[in-house]
Specification:
- The strands form 2 sheets. A 6-stranded mixed beta sheet has the order 2-3-1-4-5-6, with helices on both faces. A 3-stranded mixed beta sheet has the order 7-8-9.
- It folds into 2 domains: 4-165, P-loop containing nucleotide triphosphate hydrolases (Rossmann fold, 3-Layer(aba) Sandwich), CATH 3.40.50.300; 185-288, K homology (KH) domain (GMP Synthetase, Chain A, domain 3), CATH 3.30.300.
- The chain has helices at 18-26, 69-83, 101-107, 126-139, 157-165, 185-200, 234-241, 246-263, 283-288, and strands at 4-12, 44-50, 53-59, 87-93, 114-119, 143-148, 210-218, 222-231, 266-275.
- The chain is an alpha/beta fold.
- Helix 6 packs antiparallel against helix 8.
- The chain is built from 9 helices and 9 strands.
- The radius of gyration is 20 Å and the shape is globular.
């Protein structure tokens, strides 16, 4: 039986629903998704398998103009995604204003099939949707397909998968057929904790925070996990802790519950907060935190 496999890289602006779409396509919550922009910092890989195909999805950070070193590293993931994909899913939505001329130029000068996904169509009428689609057809001149969808309503997800399959090259599977991702349990545990920080704090706190799993031990009936939450300033540490430690306690409780669901076993989670001044502009810290490719 002929087998088809390919790498499908997902790019687009922040807050257009890329991560939610990725999770729907894979059928599991691999990318954290919050209402805040720039939630995704690294490339997150998810694998979909069929009898005669394997699709390796990669959700990349939202496209932005870098203001500090961390964001420069994030944008490197996006540019790499344009270079090594068999299919590109360019995700926008009915309200998105995409103005990155460099990315548009690259998209209009590559041979890789590009599928334009217009998300959030449940929020507009048909006339508005047609105007958005027409505008994109003039901006992206080499589209291989355009698919309107609603990640919230789970509408047209199957159509995206069917369209992708048409462009997969003939190839054996790149990963074992029972794998959902090539990332470690430790990585997803750190992402669960970071998601809780994004959901529980405002302003600069989520963007100044990084999570490192310092210890990850599996015993017969329990996982024992020690997580370090890094921030840039002492004032941020105080905000993370909160009055009488209530704020960080809530993050710990919420994280532990989701980690237990993810790992399928009881979890003992310890969280500690450390200050690393201006870590987002520090090359050594970028390497330690895993932002080097």
């Amino acid at each position: 039986m002929t087998h088809f496999s390919g790498f499908v890289n997902i790019i687009g602006n922040p807050n257009v629903g890329k991560s939610t779409l990725m999770n729907l396509l894979v059928g599991e919550q691999l990318s954290i998704a919050t209402p805040k922009a720039q939630t995704t910092r690294r490339s997150i890989r998810g694998i979909v398998n069929g009898d005669d195909f394997q699709i390796v999805f990669t959700d990349t950070p939202g496209i932005l103009k870098p203001n500090y070193l961390l964001q420069e590293k994030m944008m490197k993931f996006v540019h790499t995604a344009l270079e090594d994909a068999d299919v590109i899913l360019f995700v926008t939505d009915v309200f998105d204003r995409f103005e990155n001329a460099e990315i548009l130029e690259k998209l209009n000068n590559i041979e890789t099939p590009i599928l334009l996904i217009i998300n959030k169509i449940d929020l507009v009428d048909q006339e508005k949707l047609e105007k958005v689609a027409m505008d994109w057809k003039t901006r992206l001149t080499k589209l291989s397909g355009l698919i309107p969808t609603s990640a919230l309503e789970k509408f047209n997800i199957d159509s995206i998968l069917l369209s992708i399959k048409k462009f997969l090259p003939e190839s054996p599977a790149y990963f074992p057929k029972d794998e959902l991702t090539d990332l470690s349990q430790r990585f997803f545990v750190s992402e669960i904790i970071r998601e809780k920080v994004f959901k529980n704090y405002q302003k600069e706190i989520p963007y100044s925070t990084e999570i490192i799993i310092e210890s990850f031990k599996e015993e017969e009936t329990i996982f024992k996990i020690r997580a370090i939450i890094y921030v840039e300033r002492e004032s941020q540490k105080a905000i993370l802790i909160g009055h009488k430690g209530n704020a960080i306690k809530n993050v710990g409780i919420q994280s532990r519950k989701d980690i237990e669901k993810f790992l399928g076993k009881q979890v003992f989670l310890e969280t500690f907060i450390k200050v690393k001044g201006d870590w987002r502009n520090n090359n050594q810290m970028m390497r330690e935190f895993g932002y080097e490719e």
